[in-house]
Design a protein that fits this description.
With 161 residues, the protein is an alpha+beta fold. The protein contains two helices and eleven strands; from the N terminus they run H-E-E-E-E-E-E-E-E-E-E-E-H. It is globular, with a radius of gyration of 16 Å.
Length: 161
């Protein structure tokens, strides 16, 4: 139930993100993507340091540029440094994770936490040292891209040394 409430909240947030974009081209009926209809994929080793599963929440709807996915990180796994052209919302649904903005201390994130990362802010996020973590990721694309991947996070950065 908690997970479903988080999804509903995240999708409500996504509506705020998209604003009036695509209003004229919207479908004239509800679009339902049933659980399991979309294929999960492994995260690329080019941008994650370990095992990550990405489960899309929905396909492109009309001309909206928002994407959403459940992202599950195995313990000790995290993303590379990256930015988002229109920012990113993360909603932690399970486990305990970590996130860090460039030049700032590492922050611990837990189920129910909502993280807003503004456009162009360099950051990473992932699982805790000994715990896995799942979050919902919502972000919009600009010119077809919703993320700018950068260098890998070093072990020293991940462990805060």
């Amino acid at each position: 139930m908690y997970k479903k409430l988080l999804i509903a909240g995240a999708l409500a947030i996504s509506t705020c993100l998209t604003g009036a974009v695509g209003m004229a081209a919207q479908a004239q009926h509800q679009v339902i993507t049933h659980n399991g209809e979309q294929s999960a994929a492994k995260g690329s080793r080019d941008i994650f340091n370990g095992n990550v599963i990405i489960e899309p929440l929905f396909n492109n709807i009309d001309d909206r540029t928002i994407s959403g996915a459940y992202v599950t990180f195995e313990p000790g796994t995290h993303s590379s440094w990256h930015t988002h052209p229109k920012g990113q919302i993360l909603v932690v649904t399970e486990g305990q994770g970590l996130t860090q903005e460039w030049g700032q201390p590492i922050q611990v994130i837990n189920p129910g936490d909502v993280i807003w990362c503004p456009p162009g802010v360099k950051h990473w996020h992932g699982a805790g040292y000994n715990t896995k973590m799942t979050h919902i990721s919502l972000c919009e694309a600009v010119d077809g891209s919703n993320v700018n991947w950068m260098e890998q996070v070093s072990d020293e950065q991940y462990y805060g040394k």
